[in-house]
Amino acid sequence: MADGVPLWAGAPEKSRLLEFVKDFAKCAIRGSPCTLLSAEAGDPISAAYFIDPQMRRLFLKRTQTPETLLANIRLENVKEVSEGAASESALPKGLAPQDLQRLVVLEFVNGDPSLFLLEGHSNDRDRFILCLKILRQEAVEVTQQRQEKTSHYAYLVGQAMSWSPSGMILLLAGFLAAGATDSGNLNGDYVPGLQVLSQTPGGKETQKRFPTHFADYPGKPSFFDVYSPTIRSLYSQVFWKALPPVDLPEAVVRRFDGKGMAVVGFEVDQVRRTKDGDVSVPISVAYNHHFETTMVGKRAAFENALMQGPGDPRIPAKHGHGASSVWKPGKREWVVRERAPGDLPTSQSFGGANGGEYRKSFHGYAPGFVQVIESPTQIQITPMQIDTWNRDKMNISHPTSFVPGPDLTGSDLRACHPQPRKPQTDTRHSKLYKRYELKKNQRIKAPTEAAGVSGDDPVPGEAVVRLRDPCSRSPDSGEECLALARAALYGQHRRFLLDPSVSAHVGCTIMADSHELNLVHVHFKVRGAGLESTWCSRQRLRRNRTKHCLPVRGATDAKKFVGTSSPLVNVSVVLDLSSQQARISLTGFNAVAMADSPWALIVDGSGNVTERRLGDHRPGQLLKPSVAVEEVKVVGDLRSVTVTRPLKGASPDYYTFTPFTDGSGQLNFISAVGSTANLSYHSQRTPGQLTFLPVDLDGACVCRGEPIPFGKAKGSLEYRATGQPEDLGSGSSGFNNHCPEQPRSDLLAMQNPTCDLRNYSGGQLACHHMWSLLDADQPIPWPEKPLEYSLKFRFWVEEYNKSYHTSLRRVTWGIASPVEYDVPRCAEGTMGCSPDGSGGWIHTIRGTFTGEGRLSAAHFHCHAPTCLSMALYRCPKGTKVCDQTTGELLCVERPVYGNASGDLFGEPGYIFQPPCLWGGEEFGLQPPPSVEGFVLGAVKTSNATYGHHGEMAWQQMYVYDAEASRDTEVV
């Protein structure tokens, strides 16, 4: 019985009641206005109440500025809901008689104070009371299987046919569940009463006007689901691997064959696939650090290619979160090989809002803005997951509470995983989540071949290679000579032989071997009394034709350079440029960035070679040809182009290869790969350094340079597995963090540990596939209980319409190293630290850089528990430092943290990040602003009361370049 209405009444009464409750629930899911009264004074607060789509919770949100969540109520905790006159609770003081007719009183089973609401009319009050009583009863009776909507729905209908009161409630629940999931959102509605998007300064009523159900988009998109291959791990293990490609559903392939598929957004979850349906895996069981996906069409294919070295340009960078960079011989990577050109993209990468915020953060674009792919066929998924499931004390599905398992015993280093924001007295702060955040432990070492690192002790100075002129400071021993040689050629997998044969020259010399180019001969000789020998490199270069091998130091080992030297004529350099077929490749010489305006060689997707003087993030000036193409070879998906030219440049716009003539022995360069066959903005880029070595000659000098400054020490982290059969980790990871000088980033000035291997304490670089995050003396527990699950993606798509859709591309901007950094434990006088006014600390970093394109979506990636906010500003061209004092605010994002309520996807310590979108004003959005050529500034704040390793300040952006097909901001 509910207010005199029998739940077992006849069909007409039942039907009317069903419709009555359905209408109420539909309104409540989207929000209904009300007034909240305080118990003491009856002060009114303008509010709105919401029911979550699972009909398990009632939310109250303040509608006045600032908008805040006032209450989060489990319906099963409601003891009684009644009209004011019938309530046994003490009513608010000063209540007007006419308000008594609109008053609703909620009493709670746990003895919490009653809650008082005013509805708009007495009829609204009656509807609220009746419907909430029914939903409360449903919340009490429906079991956890209620979450399995599809399989459980038939059960609900069958049970309801008993015509019992509980059966009637189950039938109502079935209808309501079906209505609540009409949107098709994979993870249900976005949190009722809280913002789904961050409000940009020029947006108007974005939260009310923007369609957060993809099914409500104007194009009425449909969706399809895909699953990754199985992820399998043991406690403490990292799973970071590019998984084999998966075929898209056959119906999707047929529908879009020969057409463009416009992706308007996507969703993602991690699930166990059971006979009863998909079951979500809590993020406290398996933590997603990040994910990346690549989809290809029929004009492209995935190829499991053998990598030639750690810097092979085919290794996908994936916007800072790609495949694990750990290297070992025989490593293969899934790469995209484009078979034929076309008008629309034949491959796309999807990402953004990954990590702890990946399930409830909105992954869509404004209506009309899409990622488009022609004739899609397959998808490849690269997850990075960390197994934190305590098999003895944690439920594998919801609801569950985190219980720590074994943790590092000899270290207090925390890195790349969120921790709950708890007081220091909470023991969970010091132990709970340390293992997630990827720290150096006793299994992970910095080996002696690291540049600037010898075991745990730094090499006394930087390694300097010279082709002539003596060293001002030579190494003191053969061991130091060998360490410096390895440091000079760091990043290359070469064999180093400390040659015992007698050298003609005093000091440390190295040379290449003509029979085995990967072999480096190292000689060391101490000057002794009466010895008739010269100091290293005192001799001049020989006058005969002398070949020099130029091994690459950096991330582009597939590029090989050979130089020849003659003092008279016929002086030339041979350049062997390898690049991914069908994509443009660029190499700029004597530069570390495009801002150096280097002479560059460009090889397009057809093998044509052009030369340019590059501009700062601009194509620059096309130059007359100075190179001769000697050979073009294609092997698999690699094209190798060999060109020659004189060492001396034709004019100041062309580089003169001075390392051959001034004896410096080293040359900086930049390398980039485009996303298309023609000249366009690069999709991957990296700096590198060439070291010139004589072949089968007296050798080049290796000198001890100045002490390596902070931020310059490089090297690698090596994983040393224990004897436990389940410990499958192996390989080494190069330390490629780079912290630029201010104003590009504050980290170098702050001496942030993430900038230098000698200070590195932990983070993403110390965490790779199958590496265990326990110490070497801690066995991996529960070896007989692997965790198995998959990532599940839901893509929302419609047919591409060139006249309506604007195609987007992904770019990433970082103000850290560039991805990760350490949040220090703040104290008075620490750079970037300021008190928060409540006894805690806030740490702030800034970065200034040049923008590109027009903005469509911004996902500011950061981690719990430290992330507080991240903002982006636009400044006039020429601004030196861009921040809140000099620029115009474009977007600010503040994460929303999970709580202890036990909600699905709302675990303590985890976050969702409301993105900024730009688009049509009819959706409450600001038109897309241009940032092309503008100076941009980012400001990131973090909770620094305790400190944290592996935090991120990574801007994952979607932009477009072409003239807008929709309204854009005029600048």
Q: Roughly how many Å is the radius of gyration?
A: 32 Å
Hey, roughly how much beta strand do the residues contain? Answer: 25-35%
Write down how many β-strands occur, each being a DSSP E stretch of 2 or more residues: 56
Extract low-pLDDT stretches: 1-10, 143-183, 409-440, 447-460, 529-534, 537-574, 964-971
Shape annotation: elongated
Q: Mean pLDDT, rounded to whole units?
A: 77
Q: What is the end-to-end distance?
A: 65 Å
Major β-sheet annotation: 7 strands, antiparallel
Any chance you could write out the topology, listing elements then pairs?
Elements (H helix, E strand, L loop, with lengths): L10 H20 L1 E6 L6 E8 L5 E6 L6 E6 L3 E6 L13 H4 L2 E6 L6 E4 L3 H20 L7 H12 L4 H16 L25 H4 L12 E6 L3 E3 L4 E3 L5 E2 L2 H6 L4 E15 L2 E4 L5 E12 L2 E7 L25 E7 L8 E4 L18 E6 L1 E12 L40 H4 L12 E2 L17 E4 L11 H11 L6 E4 L6 E8 L6 E7 L8 E2 L10 E5 L1 E3 L5 E6 L6 E9 L4 E5 L9 E5 L5 E7 L2 E6 L4 E8 L2 E9 L19 E9 L7 E10 L1 E2 L5 E5 L11 E4 L12 E3 L12 H4 L36 E13 L6 E2 L1 E6 L5 E4 L9 E3 L5 E10 L3 E8 L5 E9 L12 E6 L2 E2 L13 E2 L3 E2 L17 E9 L4 E5 L1 E7 L11
Parallel strand pairs: 18-43, 22-24, 23-25
Antiparallel strand pairs: 1-2, 1-7, 2-3, 3-4, 5-6, 6-7, 8-42, 9-42, 10-19, 11-19, 12-13, 12-18, 12-42, 14-17, 14-19, 15-16, 20-40, 21-39, 23-24, 23-39, 26-28, 26-38, 27-37, 28-29, 29-35, 30-31, 30-36, 31-32, 32-33, 34-35, 36-37, 40-41, 44-56, 45-55, 46-47, 47-54, 48-53, 48-56, 49-50, 49-54, ...
Helix pairs in contact: 1-3, 1-5, 3-5, 4-5
